[in-house]
Specification:
Elements lengths: L1 E2 L39 H22 L5 E9 L8 E10 L2 E8 L3 E5 L5 E5 L5 E5 L1 H4 L1 H10 L7 E7 L4 E3 L7 E3 L3 H14 L7 H17 L2
Parallel strand pairs: 1-7, 4-8, 5-9, 8-10
Antiparallel strand pairs: 2-3, 3-4, 5-6, 6-7
Helix pairs in contact: 1-4
Amino acid sequence: MRKHDDGQMSAPEMSAPDLLNETTRASDDSSGHPCTTKATYGAGNHRHVSRSLRMRIAPIFQRACDGRVHLRHALELEHAPGTRNSTTMVHCLAITPFGVFVVNRYDWRGVIEPGINEDELAVVDELGGVTLHTSPLRRAKPAVRHLRLMLSQHECPVESIAIFAEARCNLHPTMPDGVMTLPDLHYFLRTRLNRFRATHRRFLDADNVVSHIDWSCLRRRSRP
């Protein structure tokens, strides 16, 4: 068994080819935020993967939210100012009337199974070799914690979603429900919408929430 060395603050794993099995290139978007990544990936590739992911998830979120959703892509969130690993990367952020979702895209190939603990996943290749990776949900925890704190006054649920490319990837049925392929996303959002409705709370003001997030990101980028 091999253990893949991937730090908590590294960008989500990706591959320039097979961007969620998409062959069309996404156009640029003025609402995207600049972002830096490790040199291994390159900022340009990160933005391209983020735009491609946004194109694929946008109609699904629009349908689940009756059009009331804001999407941001290629975000760099400063979750721990003044520390060595002060920022974390997010491919897409979806702001809906029933919560905020941190959405990242992965391109692991093989059978993806639960690991020995909730912070790891096992990838079994075609020869039966097993490699342990940090779980995408564990990688997204800094961003989730940061957003929960930022949006605490809105009482806004925040959670992460890991989208795996369908090609050459098979997710074990016991995977956490936040780990999925694209066809699973609509059902997942339905469960979160119904869970929120069951609390009998008023729906969130998504416009107000996204303004808060945009203001916070703009303030960080404008600091000297």
